[in-house]
Amino acid sequence: MTESILVLHVDDDPDFADMAAHLLEREDDRFSVTVATSASEALDRLADGAFDCIVSDYDMPRQDGIELLKTVREDNPDLPFILFTGKGSEEVASDAISAGVTDYLQKGRGMSQYAVLANRIDNVVTRYRAENERQWRNAIFEGCRDAIFISDSDARFVDVNEATIELTGYDREELLSMRIPDLHEEDDLDAYREYHERILSGEPATTMAEILRADGSKVPVEFSNRRLDVGGDTYMHTVARDLTERTERKRTLERDQNRMHAITDAIPDMVVVYDTDGRFRSVLSGPEDLPVDGLGSLEGETLEEAFNSDAADCIQAAIDETVESGAVQTVEYALMSNGNRRWFEAHVASLDTGDTDRAVLVARDITERKAHGRELDEANTVLGTIVANLPVGVIVEDAKRDVLMTNDALCEILDLPGTTDDLIGRNCEKAAAEIKDLFDDPDGFATGIKERIDQRVPVSNEVLDLADGRTLERDYVPYDLPDGEANLWLYRDVTDRVDRERELQQFERIVEHVGDAVWIHDPDGTLRFVNDPPAAALGLSPEDIVGKQAMAVLASVADPEKLATFTQEVQRILAGKTDTARLELPLYLETETRHLDVRVTAATINGTRHAVGLARNIDEQKRREQELQRQNKRLDEFASVVSHDLRNPLNVAHGRVSLALEEHDSEHLSVAQNALDRMGALIDDLLTLARQGRRINDPEQVALSAVATRCWSVIDGTEATLNVESDLPFMADTDRLQQLFENLFRNAIEHGAEDATICVGSLADRRGFYVVDDGPGIPEANRDEVFDFGYSTSEGGTGFGLAIVKEVVDAHGWNITLTDGADGGARFEITGVTIAQQ
Fold this sequence. Notes:
Number of strands: 32
Mean pLDDT: 80
Strand content: 25-35%
Radius of gyration: 48 Å
Largest sheet: 5 strands, parallel
Strand order of the largest sheet: 2-1-3-4-5
Number of helices: 26
Low-confidence stretches: 292-296
Structural class: alpha+beta
Shape: elongated
Distance between the termini: 79 Å
């Protein structure tokens, strides 16, 4: 019968999903298609039943097809997953491949696409099943405890499993160069050739023979052989079982039987036949040191004559009871021997001789057992004390599943009412049914107990989730008591450990996917964790690096002084002298030089101080910095030209016009002088712009009130007032920040009243600062233009003031917005500043 193929089709369009399912099932009658219209529904269906393939759309609400694929891959890394989408792009295909998609097919028009999709499903499922079957066959072959090997028609080994290697003592390469006769002595070869020919003719055969191991020893082996035809060639499949243990058991059994006969002939117990009146009739056996003159002398004597009165009365009462009831009686009595008390346990049974009622007594010296019993009582007391104080929950049950022993820890872990005394004697099966709702999977908890007891196989660290979110681990140990089977259960609350493990797994997943290098130093500086990027850069694997010192790993590729500084900083962090360190470390690799921005931070792991390192490749940043330096150099050259070659002629012209005005009162000369003044202002602003555009690389801590007050002091010839309402500390370049405030102050004065009021303060959330005036403000329609070069509403303005402000803000990496002030003026808010630590 053709095996069906179960397909889960996920598409948020239910009509399309149903149609596609119908067409796929029509294309191949092996297909059984289940439809899900969302990723969450698909995951629920996947949890409820097994599927051979998932076909999913990409563009779906809440969780798209690639996100669904990533979730599926967490529990089903090999399950075929085909992305069948109408939104195709190289980016989507690349993301799908990175997430582990099996195949990718873009939706098209017409019915032929479903034949293509059906063919793709058939192909991936066929490969998936073939791989599973290969893994199963390999597991059976390698997991078998018996030796399994394949030989060709010339009896040469073709394949062997690990058990064959252990059985023969040869390694795999040696065996594959040998023939089976090489393992047999010369005398066995004729018999081997005979059964080898029978097997190759198709007759299975089971034989026993000794093989020669590599060390020269002989091993008795049972061979089960059959013919195997593969690809037109004939082979022999052999299962070889080591009979050493079986042979030894047989010898042991023979020895035990011989010993048993000897024991029967010389029973150490005292066996005596009594008359009903307690007179010794015959003594069959007994210990030589019995506290009487001799065994033979007992015959004919009464119990009172042979033993003390207490022992005699005890035995006589047992004889009377067994003769009357017919039931075997068991009694204990003590006799004195050489000044020591010896205890005996006697079984008394009636003996029907046909004409006289008699009793037979079998007595065993139990003196040592009595002493052992006392020791056992003491041991049980100690054991009970240990169990009571164990940090794990313990429960011991007998063959009837009644509680024999438990402790307070079990009651605390499972939050059970009552005390341990209340649990002793209770039936565990009934108790489990009462508390099963404490667990996340109640029925699984109950059935799991039954399965463990039925199988009677020890189980360790079985994980159980409680309904309250805690996690337990359970151990099961079956053992035997004198009166039957027993079970030991241990419960541990491992919630904290599991949470830490999950956090660690999450950390490792994050670290393994981050592009930067990450490593961890233990307290003595040894590398205990390294992710892939640094190892790959050095041409190594993480395993090659872990366990070594960073100095040893980087000595051949790092600058010695830089490496020494790095090592010293790590040691300072591990010693608790500092918590962080940062430096730039160049690595001189075979084909390139890499510059790394290295940051090391202290971290406490399992209560111990470690150092966690993070290194980022800043080669691109270095290249940008070099390019910026070249640009700044050209900008400085431009500024120098402007400052020297333009300003000097301008100063000459300005001086000449001033002299001409002294000699001639001309309207034209006044206009020319104003134009020259404007050109000077333009040159000043251009020079400022040329220098303000540079990126801030070394900011320092400044105080808002101090820098604003200092900038106000250079604003001359004004009746305006400045109010500073905050002393906010933040990081900035002082000179560039001064240009920002001076231009904002001048802008407020030039476009407002001469007696304008300007306020400076920090924003409500202290994420930046503001400058606001009480002037006419700036219309909302013009606010996008005020920061453009050359924009001005003043006849004498250069249009560069606010552009310079914007350049200073951008150079710091800040943001600036323009809004209305509370009194209608212009309010400039600067955000994104770095607040300094006080």
